Amino acid sequence: MKIKKGDTALIISGKYRGKKGKVLKVFPKEDRVLVEGINLIKKHQKAKRTGEKGQIIEMPKPLQVSNVKLICSKCGKATRAGYKIIEKSKVRFCKKCHQEI
Ligand SMILES: [Zn+2]
Asked: What is the pTM assigned to this prediction?
């Protein structure tokens, strides 16, 4: 997984194509990411107390990582990330501007 929590992702397919959002969570085993404000599903929340109304809340649902692209925090372009080893530690870099991200 080349996308991490806190990244900005660009949605490249489906109903939310062209939209951007912050990555809230990654699910490496399932190859899915949860992006803020994207792929919302309506969920009914039951009333907590009697007499109160239940509400409908919108929750984001994880997307396939193949449907999103990483937006580089340095150059602002939709990019792919690469990894390289610098002084024995793994760093992620942008394949467009080659800066560490
Ligand atoms: Zn870049």
From this structure: 0.84
C-alpha 70 to ligand 1 mean position (Å):
10
Taking the centre of ligand 1 as the mean of its atom positions, its distance from the CA of residue 17, in whole angstroms, is 21
Q: Are 35 and 65 in contact (CB under 8 A)?
A: no
What whole-number distance in Å separates Cα of residue 45 and Cα of residue 56?
6
DSSP structure class, residue 65: G
| 49 Cα: distance to centroid of ligand 1 (angstroms) | 50
Give the pLDDT confidence of 39-96 residue by residue, as tens digits.
999 998 888 888 888 899 998 999 999 999 999 999 999 999 999 999 999 999 999 9
Counting Cα atoms < 13 Å in the Cβ hemisphere of 85 gives 2
Phi/psi for 24 (5° steps) reads: -90, -30
Give me 8's structure tokens: 């900005």
